[in-house]
Specification:
- The structure is a single chain.
- The protein has 432 residues and is an alpha/beta fold.
- It has two domains: 1-326, 3-Layer(aba) Sandwich (Rossmann fold); 335-428, ANL, C-terminal domain (GMP Synthetase, Chain A, domain 3, 2-Layer Sandwich), CATH 3.30.300.30.
- Helix content is 30%, strand content 25%.
- The protein has eleven helices and 21 strands.
- The strands form five sheets. A nine-stranded mixed sheet has the order 4-3-5-6-7-8-9-14-13. A four-stranded antiparallel sheet has the order 10-11-12-15. It has a four-stranded mixed sheet with strand order 20-19-18-21.
- A hairpin with a 4-residue loop joins strand 7 and strand 8.
- Helix 10 packs across helix 11.
- The longest helix has 19 residues, at 12-30.
Amino acid sequence: MYWEKQLETIPREELSLLQAERLKKTIANAQRTSFYRRLFSHNKIDPEKIKSPEDLKFIPPTTKVDLREGFPFGFLAVPLEEAVRLHSSSGTTGTPTVIYYTASDLDRWTNQVARSMYAVGMRKNDVFQNMMSYGLFTGGLGMHYGAERLGALTIPIGAGNSKRQIWFLKFFKSTAIHIIPSYALLLAQLIKAEDLDPRQDFNIRIMLLGAEPHSEETRRRIEEIYGAKAYNSYGLSEVNGPGVAFECVFQEGMHLWEDYYILEILNPQTLSPTPPGEVGEIVLTTIYRDATPLIRYRTGDLASLLEEPCPCGRTHRRISRIQGRTDDMFIFRGVNIFPMQIEKVLMSNPEVGNNYRIILEREDYRDKMIVEVEIKPELFLGDLQKLARLRERIQSELHSEILVTPEVILVEPGSIPAPEGKVQRVIDHRQL
């Protein structure tokens, strides 16, 4: 059951001591960066007094803005010649963020991902097809190296090119795949268009879902379509990439590997700790990375802490699935709404297909929300009254969930553009 039993089941008291030891080394290492030297000096922080996770509250959080302003070397804690790789954000909205890795950093990251994959049942005899982008995006290479560390036959096919994906799945009998949830639903449609059955004609048993938030209803739908177990994972490039937190076989929240990170979940407005079960922003401190240490990094991701012990016996605390982001929330008529709330309602209806989009417009100075929903093709062969009742039911359920009433438009499958990469669910024309 365990990749590293001693570390995965370490008593909480010993884990706290390990975190404190690694935190002190991280603080010392962070002082080698120009950013943290200035931060400590400006806030009159004595690094020698930061000795335990409880002391982190005296340090202001680090943000993505800080990373961008520190471009390119402001967060580098080792001589550049000791760094062997960098990953970067796209930079499409401004200066990119850049994270550097030493060889030791990469080795630790690889082990962290291998531990995560092992926790969901991947083994040496699996064939792993990695459907994520390679390159500056961490998702592809991160999972790739983890799978190889496990000893699994690894197919670095990358994203897109669906016909080729299907051919490799069938010919090499891939048993484990890494895939974006929205693409998993699209790929299933394309498989069926080839007169193939995702359950009967393939050997997939493990699906690692990542790169975009998704609801529990979406996960269960994917599992039903493929006849495989779909596992939720969490990662972000700033604190390594995939493998920061991962579900185990029990699928009851994601274990965040606390020998690599110190976890805080804070109220995004007040930065005060949120109690277990209450949604807040994930804030992480890296404690096992040399090249780019980050202290109290505000991820922008929203989740809650699950306090109950996991049946698997791992002692690392679990977080819920990502509930949204502080920056993908949109405000509609004064109400804060996350796309995940709408997805939850749509995917709980069996008549709904695999694609939808949310369009925000402004008419006569008043906001308007349109939810376009693909539904099963056979429903268009029935009577119009049945369609009208379905539309009204979805509209009512959405109102109950988000407290406002959107316009719901039912469309045929394939009507909504379905990109093979990360899907854009919200189109906000109000900003134009």
